[in-house]
Amino acid sequence: MTNESLTFIFLNAALINNFVLSAFLGICPFLGVSGKLKTSIPMGAAVTFVMFISSLFAYGINQALIAIGAPYLRLISYIVVIASAVQLVEMFVKKFSPVLYRALGIYLPLITTNCAILGLALFQTSKGYNFVQSISYSLGAGVGFTLALVIMAGIRETLELSDIPGIAKGTAIALMIAGILSMAFMGFAGLGG
Amino acid sequence: MDTKQTTSMDEFLKGLWKENPVFVQVLGMCPTLAVTNSVINSVVMGIATTFVLVMSNFFVSLFRKLIPKQVRIASYIMIIATFVTVAEYIIQAVSLEVHKSLGAFISLIVVNCIILGRAEAFASKNTIGKSVMDALGMGAGFTFALLSLGVVRELLGNGTFAGIPVFGKGFEPWTIMILPGGAFFVLGAWLLFFNYLKQRAEKKEKVLV
């Protein structure tokens, strides 16, 4: 498993096993922030950044924990690293773009509880990726998340102008669309060979 | 708090139905969608989450006067992560097979918004007894939601119920139901159904008024 090429790892995380649409990670922000195209891109970028940072640290922490023989501390250490990375991003966004900070609202601190990020750290550990492979994996996952978020936001913006039956408004119709998108992404399975 | 004294039973029942974490509050979607491809997985996930929920609500409520406000979220996450690790090791010890099929999603209970949400919104303000009842109710509601997805998906996608074949040999399984797309469709359909019930109830009320 560990001799996969970097391109394959990237494509695998971004398209074939898209984090949102086929591994069901990060559904909360996917449904919550995908209302507007304008906020979906910065949100995707923020998540990608946190993923990148936490992937780097998760790799180091895992090595250290194996060295001292305490793998049961893995979960707790990962979550602390992720929470700190999110705090960093939050301070950064607040300082440089207060407008964006307000637009993202509660979903920015909630990146901490975005399972895509913890999931990424856990998957890269269980797959036994080395340092460079982990970086490629985290970037692929980030791109995949952003892609799904942007596509969804585009569809939902159009949807607002169309006539939806009352009972389907909101989450129900969003889930149906996600289902169709997920089926569309299954088409990428061929890329894996 | 309203003047009416809420009993422990009320705390339990509201999680099961009126404030169901999945169908009403739309929380904890990731595990709901990911592990419900079979009945067994749904049950194990539901029980594990309930266990973590009860333990974390108990300890958050116990320490609610000791934890400073600024570091409360970090402290809650620490408590939750500890019990998730415990749950993970228990499942691994009891059934390696289930542990394998649930994979990383057991560890991912840590980031289930339901648990942190209950700790913050309920356990940090209420007594231990009430918090535990609230956790049991929310856990039961979550398990109920997982099951209602798991049963439909396994029945249609595999033609079985908890591994036992239900339909005759002529049944052609709807493979899509086991695949990721099916999870979105089934949950979407359940939400449609509940919205329909809600609207009908509202209409009835209007007629009565």
Helical residue percent band of chain B: 55-70%
The profile of the biggest β sheet of chain A is: none
Quaternary state of this entry equals heterodimer
- Our measurement of the CA-to-CA distance between the termini of chain A, rounded to an integer number of angstroms, reads 15 Å
Write structural notes for this entry.
The complex is a heterodimer of chains A (193) and B (209). Chain A is mainly α and 193 residues long. Chain A has one domain. Chain A is built from 9 helices and no strands. The radius of gyration of chain A is 17 Å and the shape is globular. The model of chain A has no long low-confidence stretch (mean pLDDT 83). Chain B has one domain. Chain B has a two-stranded antiparallel ribbon with strand order 1-2. The relative contact order of chain B is 0.17. At the A-B interface, helix 2, helix 4, helix 6 and helix 8 of A face helix 2, helix 4 and helix 8 of B.
Summarize the structure.
Chain A is mainly alpha-helical and 193 residues long. Chain A is 73% helix and 0% strand.
Name a few traits of the molecule.
heterodimer; A: 193 residues; mainly alpha; 9 helices; 73% helix; globular; B: 209 residues; two-stranded antiparallel sheet; 8 helices; 2 strands; flat
How does the SSE layout of this entry go?
The complex is a heterodimer of chains A (about 190) and B (about 210).
Chain A: H1 6-16, H2 27-32, H3 37-68, H4 74-96, H5 98-104, H6 115-127, H7 131-159, H8 171-186, H9 189-192
Helix pairs in contact in A: 1-7, 3-4, 3-6, 3-7, 4-5, 4-6
Chain B: H1 8-16, H2 29-34, H3 39-62, H4 72-94, H5 96-102, H6 113-123, H7 128-158, E1 160-161, E2 164-165, H8 180-208
Antiparallel strand pairs in B: 1-2
